[in-house]
């Protein structure tokens, strides 16, 4: 289980996350919702060691992630797909996947797993990443992250800017991965997606998780969406 306990974090003198706590369980999709600027992306960066944690702790099993340098966090089983995907644009699909496999020295078996998950990528192994469609790039970014065989997957608004068929494909992928026992942390602004795939929703405001709702407590007309997301 990923446990974030009372963290305070930010950029230089600017504190963004304040005494923030929540947990993400294996085999569950935990959605993070909140208005622009609530600190959702900063939370993901803090988990990855990309923003310094000033107090509190981030634990995954026996590992204290907040004490590790950023390059060590993926080695402990946390994979991250940031907003904007950050692919190696000039490299091919196959080469991007190979880079993902190298990080934790995963082999052919893992490569087959991610290509089975995204058959469209298997058809495009020699295509240069920058020439893929937006949806295909998102698939590749997720595939590359999954090459780590992570315990925890962080996805920052993976559906942003995608057409409906791609959005449903990403949803289905997240649900399939849940069955494998993965803990997924998903920053998501779309209420329909959250209602379909979230086991739990952490609502953020002002750099804190202000409310955690279980799936059974949420409906489309929930006042929580109005309160925390403004929809
Ligand atoms: N590199 C940075 N340096 C200084 N402040 C930053 C930096 N990145 C983000 N911030 C500030 O941190 C706060 C939270 O930003 P963050 O991107 O985490 O919010 P968010 O909830 O992900 O928003 P959005 O929904 O718009 O993506 C904002 O006030 C933002 O201006």
Would you mind describing this structure in some detail?
With 231 residues, the protein is an alpha/beta fold. The protein folds into two domains: 1-77 and 152-231, Rossmann fold (3-Layer(aba) Sandwich); 82-149, no CATH class. 32% of the residues lie in helices and 28% in strands. It has eight helices and ten strands. It has helices spanning 40-47, 93-103, 108-117, 119-122, 134-146, 164-179, 191-197, 223-228; strands at 2-11, 14-24, 29-34, 53-60, 63-64, 78-81, 152-156, 183-187, 200-205, 208-214. The strands form two sheets. A six-stranded mixed beta sheet has the order 6-7-8-3-9-10, with helices on both faces. Helix 6 links the parallel strand 7 (152-156) and strand 8. The chain is globular. The two termini are 31 Å apart. The model has no long low-confidence stretch (mean pLDDT 93). It binds adenosine-5'-triphosphate (ATP). Adenosine-5'-triphosphate binds next to strand 2 and helix 1. Adenosine-5'-triphosphate (ATP) is lined by residues 11, 14, 16, 34, 36-42.
Bound molecules: adenosine-5'-triphosphate
> Structural class of the helix and strand makeup?
alpha/beta
Q: How much helix is in the residues? A: 25-40%
Q: What distance separates the N and C termini?
A: 31 Å
- Cross-sheet strand order for the largest sheet: 6-7-8-3-9-10
In the predicted model, the low-confidence regions spanning at least 5 consecutive residues are: none
- How many helical elements? 8
CATH superfamily of the largest domain: P-loop containing nucleotide triphosphate hydrolases
- Which fold name corresponds to the CATH topology of the largest domain? Rossmann fold
Family: Belongs to the ABC transporter superfamily.
Domain ABC transporter: 2-231
Protein name: ABC transporter ATP-binding protein
Keywords: Amino-acid transport, ATP-binding, Nucleotide-binding, Transport
């Amino acid at each position: 289980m990923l446990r974030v306990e009372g963290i305070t974090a930010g950029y230089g003198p600017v504190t963004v996350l304040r005494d923030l706590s929540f947990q993400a369980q294996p085999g569950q999709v935990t959605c993070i919702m909140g208005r622009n600027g609530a600190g959702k992306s900063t939370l993901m960066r803090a988990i990855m060691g990309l923003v310094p944690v000033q107090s509190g702790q981030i634990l995954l099993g026996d590992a204290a992630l907040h004490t590790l340098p950023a390059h060590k966090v993926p080695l402990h089983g946390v994979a991250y797909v940031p907003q904007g995907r950050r692919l190696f644009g000039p490299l091919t699909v196959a080469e991007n996947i190979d880079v993902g496999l190298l990080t934790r020295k995963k082999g052919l078996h893992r490569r087959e797993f991610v290509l089975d998950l995204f058959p469209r990528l298997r058809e495009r192994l020699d295509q240069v990443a920058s020439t893929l469609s937006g949806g295909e790039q998102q698939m590749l970014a997720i595939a590359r992250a999954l090459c780590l065989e992570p315990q925890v997957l962080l996805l920052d608004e993976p559906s942003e800017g995608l057409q409906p068929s791609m959005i449903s494909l990403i949803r289905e992928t997240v649900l399939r991965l849940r069955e494998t026992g993965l803990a997924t942390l998903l920053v998501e602004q779309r209420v329909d997606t959250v209602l379909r795939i979230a086991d739990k929703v952490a609502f953020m405001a002002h750099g804190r998780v202000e409310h955690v709702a279980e799936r059974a407590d949420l409906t489309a007309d929930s006042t929580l969406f109005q309160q925390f997301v403004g929809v």
